[in-house]
Amino acid sequence: MLRVTDEIILQPWEMTEHFTRSSGPGGQNVNKVSTAVELRFEAARSPHLPAPVKARLRRIAGRRWTQDGAIVIRAEETRSQARNREIARERLAELIRAALVAPKRRVATKPTLASQRRRIEAKAQRGTVKALRGRVADVED
User: What is the Cα–Cα distance from 112 to 117, expressed in whole angstroms?
Assistant: First the structure.
């Protein structure tokens, strides 16, 4: 089980873990021990997540979201298989927590009358500065 929040607890059948050899340094150990974790969470089939949360999760997950509606998270930071498993599970929990937060709706507001006047005055002033740029007429005495 993975506790995301007090209300959302993911069951073991929703997640599968696959262990592979990790890339990068590690000496001889890297060739023998499968420490990298590939955590697969069946997000689309999860009964614990409401539809709006699934939609936000899909957008947040990006390319980690597969065509069949699963999220794949790979962790290979440490040489310990158990620690990599914890890291992958925590990443999944953070992803779901981010999807739980509904974005605030933007309320359109009108600019104030004073700000509109300041904008027009600034444009007029800039226009006069530009109009003064040009050839200087010769003054004959």
Answer: 9
Write down the domain spans for the chain.
Answer: 2-100
In 19-112, alpha helices (H): 29-32, 51-61, 81-100
What does the pLDDT look like over 49-105, one tens digit per residue? 889 989 999 999 889 999 998 999 999 888 888 899 999 999 999 998 898 888 899
Angle, CA of 47, 50 and 53, to the nearest 5°: 125
Give 80's DSSP letter: -
Neighbours of 101 (CB within 10 A): 9
2-100 fold: Double Stranded RNA Binding Domain (3.30.160)
Say which range, 7-16, 19-28, 63-72, 117-126, has the weakest mean pLDDT.
19-28
What beta strand segments (E) does 1-141 contain?
2-3, 9-10, 15-20, 36-41, 71-75
